[in-house]
Amino acid sequence: MHPDHAPQWTPPAEAEDQPRQWRRILSLFRPYRGRLAVVGLLVGASSLVSVATPFLLKAILDVAIPEGRTGLLTLLALGMIVGAVLTSVFGVLQTLISTTVGQRVMHDLRTAVYGRLQRMSLAFFTRTRTGEVQSRIANDIGGMQATVTSTATSLVANFTSVVATILAMLALDWRLTVVSLLLLPVFVWISRRVGNERKRITTQRQKQMAAMAATVTESLSVSGILLGRTMGRSDSLTRAFSDESERLVDLEVRSNMAGRWRMAVITIVMAAMPAVIYWTAGFALHFGGPAVSIGTIVAFVSLQQGLFRPAVSLLGTGVQIQASLALFQRIFEYLDLPIDITERERPVHLDRVKGEVRFEDVEFRYDAEGAPVLDGIDVTVPAGGSLAIVGPTGAGKSTLGYLVPRLYDVTGGRVTLDGVDVRDLDFDTLARAVGVVSQETYLFHATVAENLRFARPDATDEELRAAAKAAQIHDHIASLPDGYDTVVGERGHRFSGGEKQRLAIARTILRDPPVLLLDEATSALDTRTEHAVQEAIDALSANRTTLTIAHRLSTIRSADQIVVLDGGRAVERGTHEELLELGGRYASLVRRDARLEPTS
């Protein structure tokens, strides 16, 4: 069974309960509680200054102007100006600190998700679209930017302002305050309804954005463009992308329009409230109630407008936070992914690895309830020896090889390196001990030198050249206008298949691992190129323990030991000559291989 046949990963069907989700969100801000406390002080100070201004206005209208007290008038007017200046300064400082904290939280989230994915087994990536992974890191975390940078602070600021304003309104006139707050419960109910609707739509929108990102990643890569052009499917790919984009347009419109009419009604009612206050004060005076001074009415209306602005913002913030919960949930799904391959609490570290590899009664399943991909494999490869693994497609060849560097973990038996179970070794020992050259050569969009130094960042220029010469690629690199500073292009497409393979071999030579895993490293090459690459592989394999997963059997005839896999079991083993004499599966594969070999 090939890794691609592993079950598709899907996120949990049920979202975690909101109280736990809120606790997790708040825990993200815990490392920055000192800065947030400063923000809280600035918010409180700003609210107090804002609330004080209407009282200064009341004193101006009821005392300073009627009594002609110009000195008091000047002081009160200056107080209002100072209040405006302080509010602005507090607002700038508050924005600076809260934005910094928010960006740090986003950085922490991005790093946590990326680090989690780096620790996932290879099986996860064989069943997850690359665009989906990229969308979680870019779109979902990016979509939370407003929430973690400004929304949280806005929530605190508006809440503090609303509380302070209501207390000030009660101090001015409790009856007018009651009239002003009658509709507030209705507004809160409406905003919760809108928030739930926005959250539901946001979840659908982010899934659609992930699907579109996956389409872009797959179809606009170099390989995707080549496939689309050569198959004449460019127009159909464009139409498919257009359909994805059209669905996103619909979701974006629904997301932005969700509850707009209901929130518009709230805004209209709040804008009309000053008229209601004037009407209430006038009727109270007309029917013999206690008189309300002009200064009190003006100050109260000013406070009321000061209340409505943060109240509307508070309701809108609540809606935005409800929508952002869907984004947090998608990120938490990745942070909660179970890590299959972990390091022991006290792992074994080997300073020097000889290279003996043993497979002891190895069993492997992709799914606990599925059929075994490998079953009862017992093979020993002495240090410096060579093992070739052959068999039909789907026999489990690559899976067996990938157990050595722990790209997968056995589900039964064990794999040992120098007598130590690879699961007991620390990751650093394994990374130094086992080098992998596969058919799918991956090169970064960087220079040749940078790609080679990925194996050893401290390698000198002379060491780069020595590795390239051993891999028989130095002369070609030197012939390029920029030499080792040549940019290889997306996935190395400026180089041929054989050149990319030799670059990968040079990179592995630079790493100098005692154990080498060659996963069909020449199967996609033509015969002439294969010979050149094989010479580089022979140089790389010298004095190393070598495990070769072979497609072309001509490349493994000199192996110390050959194991034939079929249906996940070792059905034959021996040298090339011994297996030919046996006349079994291997002999049949050799005859087939000979028929497929080009005659020229």
Automatic annotation (TrEMBL):
A Pfam family recorded for this sequence: ABC_tran
Positions of transmembrane segments: 36-61, 73-97, 162-190, 261-279
First-listed, main subcellular location of the protein, grouped into a coarse class: membrane
The ABC transporter domain, residue ranges: 357-592
Superkingdom classification of source: Bacteria
Membrane topology: Multi-pass membrane protein
Protein name: ABC transporter ATP-binding protein
Source organism (scientific name): Streptomyces flavalbus
